Amino acid sequence: TLFYRLQSFYSLIHDRRVGEYVLPKGSIVIGAGNRAQDSAIVKTMSSALINRMFHVQLHVSNKDWMEWAIGFGIHPFVIEYLQIRPDQLWTEPPKHEEPFSTPRSWHMLSDALYEYGEENLTNEIIGILAAGCVSPQHASQFQTFHKQIHTKYHLNKILNGDMKFPHEPENRDVLYFLAQSFRAQIIKELPNEKDAVNPSQRQFAHQAKSLIKDLASISHEMAQLVVSSSEKEKGSPDWFMTEIIRDLPRLAERKEKKDA
Hints:
It contains twelve helices and two strands; from the N terminus they run H-E-E-H-H-H-H-H-H-H-H-H-H-H. It is mainly alpha-helical.
């Protein structure tokens, strides 16, 4: 069977035909497939077939997907969440069987939210639906995001200085979500090179350092989360990290004088 499939591919590529059917003049043959490292069910192409095709690696674009999602009518919860956490639109497939986040799975979650109906979307149901579609960690944070919608705590208001980070023990999960979102905002807003920083970004950097100090007074763990990096996830730019180490003592001293 594989032999006949390969024959059909070669006939399609060389002669623009499959059996008796001939493609219309000007037709372009495009093949789409998964990579072996995507843990999908794939068969390795022969070197002869590989050598007869032009190869393009496609990558997920947060901006393009978001423009499509807004126009297509993806559920507002999904759109708002991914605007805060664009880094969670796609993740590499896990090595074991569990849902994982892709544009397709977020679309599935959107459909599930619509199907369930807004009047039935309790926070518990949100968690169940999210856990069935996207990566476990993302599902948990999406559920917390939904909980946070109905609380007084919003990252934009914190960034604007209109409110503080929550410190109540019962809002620990909300604080974790806000810290993660704050981290994503820093990575999104600040360029890797200090020479590329514009006045608006410089102002944001000053503001971010002050907020990190406030967060550290509530939880050192959460403050470290904001500036941390790992092999899988990049952290804050090196120049910003250097300024945090240099300026945080000054910020602490300034706050003590103000309180006095």
